[in-house]
Write a structure and sequence with these properties.
By secondary structure, the protein is α+β, with helices and mostly antiparallel strands. Helices cover 26% and strands 28% of the residues. It has five domains: 199 residues, FAD/NAD(P)-binding domain (3-Layer(bba) Sandwich), CATH 3.50.50.60; 160 residues, D-Amino Acid Oxidase, Chain A, domain 2; 86 residues, Alpha-Beta Plaits, CATH 3.30.70; 78 residues, Gyrase A, domain 2; 121 residues, Aminomethyltransferase beta-barrel domains (Elongation Factor Tu (Ef-tu), domain 3), CATH 2.40.30. α1 runs parallel beside α5 and α2 packs across α5.
Length: 809
């Protein structure tokens, strides 16, 4: 066995083997994969092997497309038969609500290049899949790129291809501990000796938690028991094969919580039952391997009952075998991929429950990241940094159970899931709740979404719901007088030290503000793409406050820490809920603030983008004259023990101005009518500064060679390829939310990043990316929503306060 390598991949399942292969494909040949038993031990060997391109996140869908396209390549290179059955498949809808969801999936496919997707009738679905009862369904979607593969064959094809490219893999080699040397290299201590490695990859599947614990890391991952059954040979299958000349196609029956495909002369039926059961909740036994769990057919009986009604032939079939095996899941069902914050060269490739749809894409992303320093495309939905420190074992357990039980359930745009909540709350949570707040969880924190009158609550729908008129009242209350919002969920970072100014000048693309001032601060990667958008406040000569997106706190801290100077001249602190805040916004916001402080907050004394420390009554605060509503407004930051007092002061002083409490949905409506973008939607690390419109905040001519400067200059020269645009949409009873296709002159050319109803302006709005060549066309636009082509018009200037006169007043 080798005693050193550039990369050691821990885990010989399909994901570990894919990472190994992709590293060699990028020229990194000094790589080793270690497997404690045989390749495919754990979850891989008993997987159903299904593959498909459809995913709720378009970026993950692209990686699934890549995975399926890769199979021919690894089969040819390795000489290993992967037994690929490209049967095609149907997704079935038994309700109109589910059919609306399928129409949305179909629309997304139009800008993902999935041109062969079809929305079909139940009768057409029956022609394709004679085993169904068409009377049980209202519609379906056909996808020709679905099928299944042999799990053993695929895993060995990856591993053999990697070996041909120079990699090595060792089976029956157990990793017992991991230590790190002062120079950052890793000591991988196995039962057969120690390997020194520059990088280690945790692709340990069922044992991912144990490999994480070797370095003091508790990964948010849990294994769930998952069952599928195999039938005896069925005459209906033989008849369908003879009639169509091919295998029975795949099917997903969401309302039955089941999936089916042909298996030899019979069928395979798997379930995601609501009565789900976690497996080995605290520790995974090391001796577990090619074993199965005791089946429990009673637990899946409700799903089977629906399945037999929807697929009558199954009721007459004999059951040959029930497979029950554990699969790992993250709290939201997506993989955990990428570098771990604060650790050197420790990489995660875990919780890939759909390994035969996603394994290739995960391997490509991680190999790119290790070799090139960047995944090469947008992997936010899989990035391990999307979870914070709140995701402990109990939280993970609750959320994974919910996610598993709802895997085939509809998630409506206005639906908030309940497991593991409430977890994080501020001191004003009870006051907000008493005022009618309807909460959502953002990065673990309970955040008011909207305020409901007595007896009113959310009714989940694809269309405008019970919240619509009340969000409108909140938005108009801000524009007409003054609103009070909770911004505690924003991310807050302090940067201090003698090197703070120089470090930030290199890290951020903006010109740094002088003391007492704020600025908008884009942060770029080396390739010039936007990796962050912040407000930056200079509180003192060597003290800065950065405000950013709450959901990206771990993501941005990982970037900050990876770029810290080694001389100790800079300290960065992520405050999380140790610093909380409120925002006052609207034409009367200055009056309310002035009523609560002896400081002069007039425009002359505190112009737009000013920041200072002041006492608000008895509360010491940091106050910035800025607002994400795009109105005259302020953000006020305090220690958590002062938040209740601050809230009460503002509510009392605001009573004379009919102060309105407003939530995140009204804030979204307000920022849309100002053409303001948001992180995770308009701003992601695949778009350049010119494409996003953030280039106006980039200090191209500052002397400092900031990260991404050369690439930013190059993009300014070329103009990039896309433009972020805003549209007014002729919507009816529903509004776009994101990922809908944008067409121009009848051709799909772009996609919506976010949208909604701009209540204060009375119109429906969308933001999205289109080719720069079309970005000056006012008309000819359409956006598809729920199978309708809605006319849209380019909105070049903000609907509200187009010249920023009120915001700066």
């Amino acid at each position: 066995m080798k005693t050193q390598a550039k990369v050691v991949v821990i885990g010989g399942g399909v994901v570990g083997a894919s990472v190994l292969y992709h590293l060699t494909k990028l020229g990194c040949r000094d790589v080793i994969m270690l497997e404690r038993s045989e390749l495919t031990s754990g979850s891989t060997w008993h997987a159903a092997g299904g593959m498909h391109t459809i995913n709720g996140d378009p970026n993950v869908a692209k990686l699934q497309q890549y995975t399926i396209e890769l199979y021919q390549e690894i089969e040819d290179l390795s000489g290993q038969d992967i037994t690929m059955h490209m049967t095609g498949g149907v997704m079935l809808a038994a309700t109109e609500e589910r059919f609306d969801w399928l129409k949305g999936v179909y629309a997304k496919g139009k800008y993902l290049g999935m041109d062969d997707l079809e929305i079909i009738t139940p009768e057409r679905a029956h022609e394709l899949l004679p085993l169904i009862d068409p009377s049980q369904f209202v519609g379906a979607m056909y996808d020709p790129i679905e099928g299944h593969v042999d799990p053993y064959g695929v895993t060995h094809a990856y591993a053999k291809s990697a070996r041909k490219n120079g990699a090595e893999f060792y089976t029956h080699t157990k990793v017992e501990s991991l230590t790190q040397s002062p120079d950052g290299t890793w000591n991988v201590i196995t039962d057969k000796g120690t390997i020194k490695a520059e990088h280690i990859v945790n692709a340990a599947g069922l044992w991912a938690r144990e490999v994480g614990r070797m370095v003091g890391l508790e990964l948010p991952v849990l294994a769930m028991e998952h069952m599928y059954l195999l039938t005896e040979d069925m005459p209906e299958v033989a008849e369908a094969n003879a009639k169509t000349g091919s295998e029975v196609i795949h099917a997903v029956d969401f309302d039955g919580e089941i999936y089916v495909r042909q298996e030899r002369g019979g069928m395979l039926m798997g379930t995601y039952e609501k009565a789900c059961v976690p497996w080995s909740e605290r520790e995974t036994p090391w001796e577990f391997g090619h074993q199965l769990l005791e089946p429990d057919i009673d637990r899946i009986a409700p799903s089977l009952e629906v399945g037999f009604r929807h697929f009558p032939a199954f009721e007459r079939a004999g059951i040959k075998q029930i497979i029950n095996g554990p699969f790992t899941f993250a709290p939201d069902g997506n993989p955990l991929v990428g570098p771990v914050k604060g650790m050197t060269n420790y990489w995660s490739a875990c919780a890939v429950m759909a390994g035969f749809s996603q394994g290739g894409g995960v391997g490509l992303a991680l190999a790119n990241w290790i070799v090139n320093g960047d995944p090469g495309f947008d992997v936010w939905a899989m990035d391990i940094s999307r979870f914070g420190d709140y995701t402990n074992m109990a939280y993970t357990n609750a959320r994974v159970r919910e996610n598993y039980s709802r895997r085939f359930s509809i998630r409506y745009p206005n639906e908030e899931l309940e497991a593991g909540r409430p977890l994080l709350t501020t001191s004003i949570y009870d006051r907000q709740k008493a005022a009618g707040a309807q909460f959502g969880a953002s990065y673990g924190l309970e955040v008011p979404l909207w305020y409901a009158p007595e007896g009113v609550k959310d009714e989940f729908s694809w269309r405008r719901s019970t919240d619509f008129e009340h969000i409108g009242a909140e938005a108009r209350g801000v524009r007409d007088s003054v609103g009070l919002g909770d911004i505690s969920g924003f991310a807050k970072y302090s940067v201090t030290g003698s090197g703070a100014h120089a470090w930030l000048d290199r890290l951020l693309a903006c010109k740094l503000p002088p003391m007492g001032r704020m600025t908008l601060a884009p942060m770029l990667k080396d390739d010039g793409k936007v990796i962050g958008d912040f407000s930056l406040a200079c509180l003192a000569e060597d003290e800065f406050l950065i405000i950013g997106s709450g959901i990206a706190e771990n993501y941005h801290m990982r970037w900050f820490m990876a770029h810290m100077p080694k001389d100790g001249s800079v300290t960065i602190t992520s405050h999380n809920l140790e610093l909380v805040g409120l925002t006052l916004a609207g034409p009367k916001s200055r009056d309310v603030l002035q009523a609560c402080t002896f400081d002069d907050v007039s425009h002359a004394a505190m112009p737009f983008m000013s920041v200072r420390r002041m006492d608000i009554g008895m509360v010491p605060a940091i106050v910035g004259r800025v607002s994400y509503t795009g109105d005259l407004g302020y953000e006020i930051w305090v220690k958590p023990e002062y938040l209740t007092n601050l809230y009460d002061q503002f509510m009392l002083a605001g009573a004379d101005h009919d102060i309105t409490l407003f939530g995140a949905r009204a804030l979204n409506a307000l920022r849309l009518e100002k053409n303001f973008g948001s992180w995770g939607r308009e701003f992601r690390p695949i778009y350049g500064a010119v494409e996003t419109g953030l280039d106006r905040f980039v200090a191209y001519d500052k002397d400092t060679d900031f990260i991404g400067k050369a690439a930013a200059h190059a993009e300014r020269e070329s103009g990039g390829s896309l433009r972020l645009c805003s549209f007014v949409v002729d919507a009816k009873d529903a509004d776009v939310i994101g990922d809908e296709p944008i067409s121009h002159a009848g051709k799909v050319v772009g996609w919506v990043t976010s949208g909604g109803f701009a209540h204060a302006s009375g119109v429906s709005v969308a933001q999205g990316y289109v080719p720069k060549e079309l970005a000056d066309h006012n008309d000819g636009w359409q956006i598809e929503l729920l199978s309708e082509q809605l006319d849209a018009r380019l909105q070049r200037v903000p609907l509200f306060d187009a010249n920023a006169g009120r915001m700066r007043s």
